[in-house]
Design brief:
It comes from Streptomyces viridosporus (strain ATCC 14672 / DSM 40746 / JCM 4963 / KCTC 9882 / NRRL B-12104 / FH 1290). This protein has 484 residues and is an alpha/beta fold. 35% of the residues lie in helices and 9% in strands. Strand 7, helix 9 and strand 8 form a beta-alpha-beta unit. The two termini are 35 Å apart.
């Protein structure tokens, strides 16, 4: 569905939001861990964009540091050495500063974190491969319940985990009941007694489950469900660790974007995406109050969902923005320009695979340039499968689908039509390269100041070991404060 262009939305304080020079406010997904990729070689256009971003930072620092004040009238330190308690940041008088590409916000000086690879990979044993699609997720949940084992990798042998033939029969019976698929024979189970092997056999019969819009990462419990949206690339499965660390009776459902599987194309507008997610969510919980959250641009889509529910008179008890930048134009035009080029978009999102799956995927520009354009998606997928980032039978076009989905969100030019009247809880990563102000811009889209909770990690490691425990604890606290 095509939408007519809208005028810039009014700011809650009465003045219009300024758009970029091209007339749109851009949103950036977190491919490449939320940072523009400065390529090696002679690509001067991208290098100019990165240099322009650096000049914005220096100019912003010279203009006065962070532009917010605490109740005591003194600006808090935006980069404390130790993550502090949550706080509500109150807005003071704001004077926007403008550049050719939109408002320039002053940013805090920082010490850049060490490389994630250095922190996570050295002297650490390899982690088990976690579920990568709905079939592996369902099998993981069945095995975990029957074997009473929580730390299961998809390549682990069922019998090495403590299973026996009686439990194998129980697994087969449960699979037939829960997966709505023809039962596998005992012989097929014994041929490949791993989650990965059985998942391949199930998908060979049907991939229909991959298209379902609601993924129950943690289906158990009687509490009000928490609905969570992934980043612009649409991968919901890297929140598996987070879902496992919520309260045992807290259902955790991820909302999967159309376009990654099946024949339906992705949406071109955030508003349409949000409306579709609301319908999917209401199939699980017909009425509010709702608990919503999102990571990266998933937080932006969650905001639009909250606005649409607000217009319908539905209550949103929690809107949790996990290191997501609010829909404002400043500092994001360069990423949008990068993804206009299909090759640059492939590099940008391909390098992001390392972040989402916590595994290294070397992707050199000169290597990818040597590959025929129509073969590049398959080329990247082959290397990703070799490193267990995707299932062994994942279609080659999955990479191009990811790139298309992320690029569409970048180009959507989303600006909220009105202000959100509820409280936004902003979970800010201490070493974030995406949210470089204390509030990430969320004060711009709500009539209330955001509740800020600063957490250890960066934009990606925030949701991975070892920092995911802290994020889960803070989310549990926020849900408890919602009192639903």
């Amino acid at each position: 569905m095509r939408r007519a262009p809208r005028l810039a939305a009014a700011d809650p304080r009465g003045h219009a939001r300024r758009r970029s020079a091209e007339g749109t406010a851009h949103a950036a997904p977190c491919g490449g861990a939320g940072r523009p990729v400065a390529p090696a070689g002679s690509d001067r256009r991208v290098l100019r964009l990165v240099a322009r971003r650096a000049s914005h930072r220096e100019r912003a620092r010279a203009r006065g540091g962070l532009r917010h004040a605490a109740d005591a009238g003194q600006a808090p330190d935006a980069r404390p050495g130790t993550p502090g308690p949550s706080r509500t940041v109150r807005r003071g008088p704001r004077t926007p500063r403008w550049s050719a590409s939109g408002p320039v916000r002053a940013r805090a000086t920082r010490t850049r974190p060490h490389s994630r690879a250095r922190l996570r990979k050295k002297d650490m044993p390899p982690r088990p491969v976690t579920p990568r699609d709905i079939y592996e997720l369902r099998l993981w949940q069945i095995w975990s319940d029957l074997l009473h084992v929580d730390d299961i990798g998809v390549k682990d042998d069922f019998f090495a985990l403590g299973g026996d033939h009686a439990k194998a029969e129980a697994v087969l019976d449960t699979m037939a009941a829960q997966l709505d698929a023809p039962p596998l024979s005992r012989e097929m189970f014994l041929e490949a007694p791993t989650i990965e092997g059985i998942g391949c056999r199930l998908r060979a019969r049907s991939r229909k489950l991959c298209e379902q819009p609601v993924v129950p990462l943690q289906p158990h419990g009687s509490k009000r469900p928490f609905f969570f949206l992934p980043s612009g690339e649409g991968n919901v499965y890297y929140f598996h660790a987070l879902a496992r660390r919520m309260a045992p009776d807290q259902p955790f459902h991820a909302l999967q974007t159309r376009g990654l599987h099946g024949a339906e194309p992705p949406f071109d507008h955030v508003e349409d995406m949000a409306a579709d997610h609301i319908e999917s969510m209401r199939s699980v919980q017909p009425r509010g109050p709702y608990l919503l959250g999102g990571h990266c641009v998933g937080a932006m889509v969650a905001l639009e969902m909250a606005l649409q529910l607000q217009r319908r008179g539905e209550r949103v008890a929690l809107l949790a923005a996990v290191d997501g930048l609010a829909p404002a134009p400043f500092f994001r035009d360069e990423i949008t320009e990068i993804v206009q080029d299909p090759f640059e978009a492939m590099i940008f999102f391909g390098r992001g695979f390392t972040s989402w799956f916590d595994r290294e995927l070397p992707l050199k520009r000169e290597t990818l340039l040597a590959v025929e354009p129509e073969r590049r998606s398959a080329f990247v997928m082959e290397r990703a499968r070799e490193r267990s980032m995707f299932t062994p039978d994942e279609p080659d076009d999955r990479v191009s689908r990811v790139v298309d989905l992320g690029a569409r969100i970048c180009r959507a030019g989303y600006v909220p039509e009105d202000a959100y009247t509820g409280l936004i809880s902003f979970f800010r990563a201490h070493d974030s390269a995406l949210c470089e102000t204390a509030t990430g811009g969320w004060e711009e889209v709500s009539t209330q100041p955001p509740r800020v909770r600063e957490l250890p990690g960066d934009h990606v490691t925030l949701v991975l070991e070892p920092h995911v425990d802290r994020l889960a604890r803070e989310l549990r606290a926020a849900i408890a404060e919602a009192r639903v």
